[in-house]
Amino acid sequence: MLSANDILHLLLALGLLLGCGRALGELVRRLGQPPVLGELLAGIVLGPTVLGHLAPDVTAALFPPTGPIASAMGGISTIAIVLFLLVAGMEVDLSTMFRQGRNALGVGIASVFVPFVLGLGLALLLPGDLGRGAHAEPLTFALFVATALSISALPMIARTLMDLNLYRSDLGMLIVATAIFNDLVGWVVFALVISLMPGTETHRFPIGMTVLLTLAFAAVMLTVVRWIIHRILPWLQAHLSWPGGVLGFALTGTLFSAALTEWIGVHAIFGAFLFGVALGDSQHLRERTRSTIEQFVSFVFAPLFFAAIGLRVNFVQDCDWLLVGVVLVVSCVGKIFPSAFAARKAGMPLRQAYAVGAGLNSRGVMEIILGVLALQVGLIDGRMFVALVVMALVTSAMAGPLIQKLLRREKARRFTDFVGARSFIAELKALTREDAIRELAAVSGAEGVPLEKIAEQVIEREKVTATGIGRGIALPHARIEGLKAPQVALGISRAGLDFDSPDGEPTRLVALVLTPAEDMNSALELYRQIVGAFNDGAVREAVLKVKTYTELLAVLASLSRPAGH
Amino acid sequence: MLSANDILHLLLALGLLLGCGRALGELVRRLGQPPVLGELLAGIVLGPTVLGHLAPDVTAALFPPTGPIASAMGGISTIAIVLFLLVAGMEVDLSTMFRQGRNALGVGIASVFVPFVLGLGLALLLPGDLGRGAHAEPLTFALFVATALSISALPMIARTLMDLNLYRSDLGMLIVATAIFNDLVGWVVFALVISLMPGTETHRFPIGMTVLLTLAFAAVMLTVVRWIIHRILPWLQAHLSWPGGVLGFALTGTLFSAALTEWIGVHAIFGAFLFGVALGDSQHLRERTRSTIEQFVSFVFAPLFFAAIGLRVNFVQDCDWLLVGVVLVVSCVGKIFPSAFAARKAGMPLRQAYAVGAGLNSRGVMEIILGVLALQVGLIDGRMFVALVVMALVTSAMAGPLIQKLLRREKARRFTDFVGARSFIAELKALTREDAIRELAAVSGAEGVPLEKIAEQVIEREKVTATGIGRGIALPHARIEGLKAPQVALGISRAGLDFDSPDGEPTRLVALVLTPAEDMNSALELYRQIVGAFNDGAVREAVLKVKTYTELLAVLASLSRPAGH
What we know:
The structure is a homodimer.
Chain A: H1 4-30, H2 35-46, H3 51-54, H4 56-62, H5 68-90, H6 94-125, H7 138-150, H8 154-163, H9 170-195, H10 207-239, H11 244-264, H12 268-280, H13 287-309, H14 321-345, H15 350-360, H16 364-376, H17 382-407, E1 424-425, H18 433-443, H19 451-464, E2 468-470, E3 473-474, E4 477-480, E5 487-497, E6 507-516, H20 522-533, H21 537-545, H22 549-560
Parallel strand pairs in A: 1-5, 3-6, 4-6
Antiparallel strand pairs in A: 2-3, 5-6
Helix pairs in contact in A: 1-2, 1-5, 1-13, 2-13, 5-12, 5-13, 6-7, 6-9, 6-14, 7-9, 8-9, 9-10, 9-15, 10-11, 10-12, 11-12, 14-15, 14-17, 15-17, 16-17, 18-19, 21-22
């Protein structure tokens, strides 16, 4: 049992991990990096690397290595990682993989097999320098390194592709399908490698039996259990409390699957992952259930887990730059080129083929989880762990810019990137179309061009075609000679203005769109986005009530962005 | 640290608690009882009362009383109860309380003060027989009994009132406002009583200081912190990831508040509760964040916590019927009559005044939580705990029927209660209005009236006024002589039928509504409900695709029911 003091320390420890993890996570997200980097950093700051160095007493009291608090934290961490893998599994879309068929299979095999062989050879040739754990057999260690180099991080890849507006393209689907294949193979192999480690207890089954049971478990989960879940979900949704009934079912199933794989002798997360695949595949699983699980896990459990990682390792002491370099180079070379080669074979143009390679190269969070588990069972030492974490972060950060460069793609920008606090007017004073345009032009922030001239140009154009598009929205626009970048100014009219809308409604929302004269594309893209953002009646209504720029952003962020990602 | 075997047992234990808890919870819900009863039952089955009696080895392995697994379970339980109190706090609506003003204050004081004095006197006069814990001072124990008798269970009361369609009535608001007052006062007093117990550590502050700090903490949370949260939420929603950013913030705040009250010397849940009040009060908190927290806590953490309660107590051995009876009678008498008296004084009619008393009498989950904590710190023994649990369940189960009887209210019925598997046709064969009505009349399940006669009567009425109401819906209807209860038959036409809709759209959804000739109200209520259920375009679209009755229920349950409750 926990004493009152234990509970106090546990609550403080969890509050610190979650609070710092989320805060740094948001910070690095704003710098364009994945939040997991910030969450890891929080652990590094709170753990032996920084705080433990400055105030060892505090770290020892909050995060003791043994005792009841350590057990409680261990239990919570276990649940956190099990649920994280449930969500990772739910993101796997088997039908996408099957639809891509032969192409994905070819690229998939190449992108798993080559790095696997490379890693295996490397680890067998230079075991001493690669950070093998004290208790690990050379072959087991080599198999782990091979697996670690050959996986890909599906969630990270999906997010990168979405940022580049490539997710639904053929290229995007091929990358995703291949990553799914890599994920499935990688986890099966990793589950088996873990089972090879000598544990504190004697093994329940001989290794051959474990392999057989693992494969049988995976097969049953992806066929029979998947089918049963698909059948049972409508019944559950009809007869249990909504939406929580399905939630309870999903988590119960996850816990039992996790327990079953743990019993077989492979890690609990493998069961959770496969249950996630089986559950997420059903079209009967509603968006609401999916998002409740995903949100709670991604923003509560995951930060706790990733921040807790930093508590275990001294990242300064255990940083071996040579090892970091070797792991990084081998993993990039071993992944990008074979994947690109296979994609080229499948008939893809050169640059796109390399983009596939760059996409699959991102290892992300999955690599870090593999590393943590290997570190826990003593398969690798702290140096190798640090090298894997750095490799995971670098390959993930590289993927986006690389694909962008290879495909000469611009990152998708939202129109809110162009509207600043200064170019938003919550209450337009103007009572006529012309005055509204002048008022907005005055705050548009266009540089190097006289503002009155801009206003007159927009008004001229407005006379030719009125820009009221109905639903209370108007989009006056002009292409301006000498303007450097697109500018958007947004104003709200409480009185309502006459922009000659086709539906006769008074215009309450005026977005002045200014684009450089030579830029033919931005205006259309901005139009599309603005209309899209205010498509929803609830958004329009909420926007009309905002009083400050911050509130405007809050409404747009909370109502218009799709769930997940 | 947890060994692989510990993890296996922990996962199994959690899976069993959650799975059985949810399954039994849903079962008793279908029997019209609160789910918490089923969740408690699950623990009783898995704990010493049943499974521990039949297979002590299994219980000992899965739910050991000490060691790493016990610590891990303790940690998870602590988080569960802290988050449960966060949600309970979020349901407190301070403005409702202030709006009811003097009335609520009068009833509130009467409904807290009288049972408090009664409990105090009783416990001081007969301490030996009331299940005082071994280490508890008589006065501390008496204060606890007094508090236990005087609280009310806000969430339970809100649900009962909603079931009776009374939530938004004056009566409902008065009950809710009073319950909020009871809740706040009850928790402050309970927090102080807990701090009086001798702990394993020496107290951090003298008791006077603890009282002062507790009151100061409550005051700061309900004013300054509430104001800050209200101010900061729009900024968080605008600048952090949506919707998870606010989630992380809410949980971090909860953990720190809980830690702070634990540090003051009152229980962690008090801080979590007050943070919930401060957070839930802000109108900037979006429904989506609210429901994500609520769903995950109510259907994952709460069942775990309540099922785990049954593991601690042998409900058969510790059942002292005399004590159960005394606690039950005193709590009912002490709550119902003073509340009714005060409500009467405030100018309420007699029956309504008693309804207020019956509503406030339900103790629900809060009582059980109070009991668990008191049992943990040794304030009460198992017998008193069982008596409190029984009292909580009985008073909660009584409230609904009692109010119903006093106000002669019928429980609100949904139109789906009238549509059965037999009276739903997923693909109408009919190509005309008349045939569709005949087809539906044939399955309508009306008893004692010839079906053809019903069809002809509906068709007659249809000739006078067409019942297509637009959006692809038609509601043919007739009041039938000799019919005993309202009947609804629902049919979907893939081809589309002509019901002379005002918008000219073909009708795809036909709901035949039959009501008894003498019943003037049901038809209107059913109309209102059916139109309401299909008001949402997404629901209409989803319904047109369903193939079975179960799928229909799933769509209606998942899309049309409001969040929460």
